[in-house]
């Protein structure tokens, strides 16, 4: 147990005010309006509006790299207005498991306590970060048990963010209030040089296994990998196609019959095995029913395997299943942004949409196909609402030449794209990711 003085010290840390950085420091070069735009977008946790930035100069290709660096620094500055992740202490706890407990205010939810610690010294490229979600027993004991297991895993150097469920009456890691928290975590991790932005992982045991599988499908574009354990979601809750470019580990007991976990894990294995044959090298997975095990399994095999894999932030061939989670749809995935939402809802028969995106580098062409899908992705029908923006980087297509755009098999555009600072600014606000600052954009009405 922590001493009273230590608990009081950490409580005071949480109450310290955040110093606002003066916008006037940017006035000389006109960057204050960009910072203000960023601050407004950070406050917009629902990601409403089309996020267009109306100012910003045109860019020749040789100025794109420097513009990205400058705009990313402005984004980092705008974020410090709100909050930053704690500093990971290098001090070992004086007592076993005597780790500090931090807390986040939540949107539409009670505060969320969390452990936050590192293993070993920072590697040259930055730490891998594991978001590790606990099971659904009494939250105090599950929280501590998850800390203990996290210290056992041989995945260092690494950093762990271990949240405690804010309210046992709402024991789901994928509810909207938690979605806002994970999006904040990704955003803050991306601006923190502590971390490697291409080595973020989500994992968990039991209820945390269910949650991490759903979250991985929802946020695959931010993740290098996912490791649910003793779980097994129905695949309609975590569409396998969204896992195409991340590493996926699922470990379940052979005799874990509760809620059909063993059967659901086997169904996932069959689906992932099939997809890996269709797309060689793109569906890296390790799905295993541990022989003779029930709900308690060997958890130590997951993270040492996951930590070997890195994110592919700008794939040029993928399919995004836009599906609802607690009634909410994401507005973006990899390089696609939904400027005007589709007319679908979780209650509809066709409650999700498919976006098939592919670049043909040889022909400097982009192919996009869309359709609405039912929950099992068996039925489909045409999309008849919504608008999207496709953002492009210089390594995805040749931006110095005309780019052909095919939508639903028809050529809809063939022209050279204008590179602009405004596109980099808008994509920075949308994706909050140093690996996804895009100088070019194509707008399409669906």
TrEMBL record:
Keyword Isomerase recorded: no
Signal peptide: 1-27
Coiled coil (UniProt feature): none
Database matches in Gene3D superfamilies: alpha/beta hydrolase (3.40.50.1820)
KW Signal (keyword) present: yes
Keywords: Signal
InterPro entries in alphabetical order: AB_hydrolase_fold (IPR029058), Plant_Biomass_Hydrol_Est (IPR050955)
PANTHER family: BLL1128 PROTEIN (PTHR43037:SF1), UNNAMED PRODUCT-RELATED (PTHR43037)
Protein's recorded name: Uncharacterized protein
